Amino acid sequence: MKNAEIAEIFNDIADILEIEGENRFRIRAYRIAAQNIEDLNEDVEAVLRKEKLLDIPGIGKDLAGKIEEYVKRGKIKFYEDLKKSVSRPVLELMTIPGVGPKTAKLLCDRLKVKSINDLKKKASQGKIGNIFGVKEKKVENILRGIDFLKGSEGRTLLSHAVRVSFEVISQLKALAAAKKVVAAGSLRRMKETVQDIDILVTSNAPRRVTDAFTKLPEVKEVLAHGPTKSSVITRDAIQVDLRVVEPPSFGAALCYFTGSKSHNISLRKMAKRRGLKINEYGVFRVKTNKKIAGLDEEGLYKAIDLAYIPPELREDKGEIEAALRGKLPALIESKDIKGDLHVHSDASDGALSFEEIARACLKLGYEYVVITDHSKSLKIAGGLEQKALFENIKKIRKLNKKLKIRLLIGTEADILGDGRLDYPDSVLKELDFVIAAVHSGFKQPKDVITGRVIKAMDNKYVNMIAHPTGRLIGKREAYEIDMEKVFKKAKETNTTIEINAYPERLDLDDTSSRRAKELGIMLGIATDTHTINQFHNMIFGVSVARRAWLEKKNVLNTLDLERFLKRIRK
DNA sequence: GCCGTTTTCGGCCCGACTGTTTTCAGTCG
Q1: Domain-located, residue A329
Q2: Most CB atoms within 10 A, among A4, A49, A97, A185?
Q3: Looking at residue A90, what is its pLDDT?
Q4: Which of the listed residues A199, A221, A245 is the one where a domain comes to its end?
């Protein structure tokens, strides 16, 4: 899969062209192309083979040629030549927040800066600060940018950002000057990780809100502080951006601040074609400057002939076309979930007893929950020997007589190195629901690991494959697994694929889940719960599903108990 | 460099904050 590599090259090219002061629209073309290739839910090489490169938005004749050149020769001559024209340090310096192409080039040209570390050294020695365009304040900002870069290891997990946003929002809500206070940005779109937290406030006294915001106790640094817009870094190193508008602009501002950027650009282009203009204050007629919408998002979309688009879909990946044609999916909601499919009890490495699990799930309004403790080979997680498993089957069957929720007995069985499961069929057939998962051999070559999972799906007792790619966000790459082949087999064997809702996993991810839906595969959203608070992670799994355009009918555990049992019985 | 209900040329989303060369370019979202 060369998608990521090509996207990176196109972004690199855009950076270099920016340094060289090229036409900004040409630069944007490269960035848009990079984004679209990264977002592609198909291998770009496969698209090339089908001669469909030109169908990718933002890819024209020229860029299609460059993609083909890269796939066939492993390099792009234009890019190789371009790299010679610019020194590496300039590109490195541009990764510092607040340092763009102009400043980076200036520093390298005038001060012969060799790297970020070199820049830091030169700055602390007072060697910068008297060149054209860079003075004391700018130096301070650069140093702060470097510290931030080193302190923040990339993006923040959605679940963590949600917690921080709750803190900030509850304090802003307490302000007399603040009316509505809501989260926006990629957090509202429920992306798996976020770069920063965006918060929108409506107020008739904006200044008072931004003043109070920059003085909140968790604020460590103020990056910018204007009358309607401010940015801070919190003590746990997350950037929070605040925007304040007057109440009549709430909808327009929320839409603008929710993004995504490319979604907004598409909306604004559409508006323009209709003689309208969209900004964060509203929708206006260009000729008369008369405001025709902006109080709420529904009105904004309606003003340009679109159905309301849920935030999770706003990625410019076909949602606007779908809204125009009235073909938006009826997205799955949390309330559609009728049971959890993946829960560990204190029989293996979980903390909860069967009764505690039943009580917690009943409270969530579920009709059923599947206990799926680890299997015997996963010793480190207290995997169950067959004898213990059979005892649990008996225990659960007995317990069900006095419960108002149906406990089902299953397992999260290990897929062994050769693709067999570590319980024999004679054991598996006694269980209500069998999950199979890879917990070893993460570094195996693609065909081996793909083969293991495919063989597991050929076992007629396997209902679902858990966390199919094994990735841990920000910690561990997915193993080399050919999901197209897995999907094909899942379709053939009627196997469900899990969307694991554990915030660090979210596996399958949104892009692959959308692909799975296109192929007609059933998905199951499950929390992989070990402790009482983790049942609530279901919301993150549902968010992945929503971002993947999934409807209720695409998700196994939206079935009520009766239908669920009917479906899983072999 | 891409794109087309202004379709093969002439456009390309829109605005806030900062620092500095004090009128605006640079950067960001």
Answers
A1: no
A2: A185
A3: 87
A4: A245
Q: Are residues A396 and A482 in the same domain?
A: yes
pLDDT at A124: 77
Predicted local distance difference test score (pLDDT) of residue A106: 85
Tell me if A249 sits within 8 A of A257, measured CB to CB: no
Q: Looking at the structure, tell me whether residues A363 and A495 fall in a common domain.
A: yes
Quick one: pLDDT at residue A328?
Answer: 94
The per-residue pLDDT for A380 is: 61
For the segment A371-414, what is each residue's pLDDT rounded down to a tens digit?
999 887 666 666 778 888 899 999 999 999 999 999 999 999 99
Q: Are A187 and A318 in the same domain?
A: no
CATH number of the structural domain spanning residue A160? 3.30.460.10
Q: Is residue A467 located within the same domain as residue A552?
A: yes
Q: Is residue A345 domain-shared with residue A367, that is, in the same domain?
A: yes
Spanning CA of A14 to C1' of B2, the rounded length in angstroms is 15
**Strand B close to A320 by CB, under 7 A:** no
The average confidence (pLDDT) of chain A is 90
CATH of the domain at A455: 3.20.20.140
Helix or strand holding residue A548 (H, E): none
CA A265 to C1' B11, whole Å: 15
My answer on whether A361 and A378 are in the same domain is: yes
- Domain holding A278, by residue range, is 251-324
Rounded CA–C1' distance between A224 and B18, in angstroms: 8
Amino acid found at A290: K
Domain C-terminal end among A245, A263, A290? A245
Nucleotides of B under 7 A from a protein CB: 1-3, 5-6, 11-21, 25-29
Number of domains in chain A: 5
Closest nucleotide to A198: CA versus each C1': B29
Chain A 157-196 contacts with nucleic strand B (CB below 7 A): 185, 195-196
ω into A472 cis (within 30 of 0): no
Which letter, b or e, does each residue of A297-309 get, where b requires 16 or more Cβ atoms within 10 Å of its Cβ?
Answer: bebbbebbebeeb
> Which CATH number goes with the domain that contains A19?
1.10.150.110
Query: Which residues 49-88 in chain A have a CB closer than 7 A to strand B?
Result: 54, 57-64, 78
Q: How far is the CA of A530 from the C1' of B17 (A)?
A: 46
Shared domain check, A502 and A397: yes
- Are both A522 and A488 inside the same structural domain? yes
**The predicted structure's pLDDT at residue A309:** 95
Cβ atoms of A461 and A446 within 8 Å: the answer is no
pLDDT of res. A382? 64
What CATH number is attached to the domain comprising A284?
A: 3.30.210.10
Nucleotide nearest to A226 (CA to C1'): B17
**Token digits for A292?**
């025709």
Strand B close to A127 by CB, under 7 A: no
Q: Which nucleotide is nearest to A54 (CA to C1')?
A: B2
Cβ-Cβ contacts under 8 Å for A28 (sequence gap 6 or more): A14
Element (H, E) at A403: none
Q: How far is the CA of A249 from the C1' of B17 (A)?
A: 20
Which residues neighbour A316 within 8 Å (Cβ) at sequence distance 6 or greater?
Answer: A260, A262, A263, A265, A266
